[in-house]
Amino acid sequence: MSRQLRRLGPRRAEGADTEHVWYAAYGSNLHHTRLGFYLRGGKPPGGRRTYPGCREPQDPPRTEPIMLPGQVYFALESPAWTGGMAFYDPGARGETPARAYLISARQFSDIAAQEMHRPPGADLDLSGVLAEGRSRMGSGCYETLVCPGSLDGRPVLTFTAPWGMGDVAWRPPAAAYLRWLASGLQVSHAWPAARIAAHLARRPGAAMRWTAAEIAALL
């Protein structure tokens, strides 16, 4: 069963434990095997990009299935997968399934850097996102940090685009990318294939190309 996020206010953020944080994955990193290529480097099956990995390559000691406020949609063109990329709009109505990984702040910085197409190795300043709930590190696709809440006294952090779901043209994701999302939901939330397929087939962008039956066949 998914755990609901507890809201993180500015006062709590000032005293929050940030040595370790929860990284909320809502895209292909829903699958722990896919996340492993960010942690230890390499090229995931079906992908076109080789990742350098993190300074601290160890696996997270804990993961939790969670529901984030907001919606996931697909847009732009992925250089790693072709097709649309998954983005998170925390201001959209509804909620979206995600997987929270307990990792060090240094690991989060290195994962974020790789998503931002920057070399890993520099610690991010998390003070802005913890105080305000949102912080722009740049204008790129995944250069906006978001803190939608906390879990067990530690902040939940993720990254997305600076724009909203209605501000960009949607684009269907490629099969290889969608397969990682679908299998990630299967292993993290233990949803049956029919529920996963129905959920993903309704996502903006995916609905332009994929039916529930076609997504179920990917699993």
Helices and strands in order:
Elements: E1 3-4, H1 10-14, E2 20-25, H2 32-40, E3 63-69, E4 71-75, E5 85-89, E6 95-104, H3 105-115, H4 127-132, E7 134-136, E8 144-151, E9 154-160, H5 175-189, H6 193-201, H7 212-216
Parallel strand pairs: 1-3, 2-9
Antiparallel strand pairs: 2-6, 3-6, 4-5, 7-8, 8-9
Helix pairs in contact: 5-6
What can you see in these coordinates?
The protein has 219 residues and is of the alpha+beta class. Helix content is 27%, strand content 24%. It has a seven-stranded mixed β-sheet with strand order 1-3-6-2-9-8-7. A two-stranded antiparallel ribbon has the order 4-5. A hairpin with a 2-residue loop joins strand 8 and strand 9 (154-160). Helix 5 (175-189) crosses helix 6. The longest helix has 15 residues, at 175-189. It is globular. The two termini are 21 Å apart. The model is unreliable at 8-12 (pLDDT under 50).
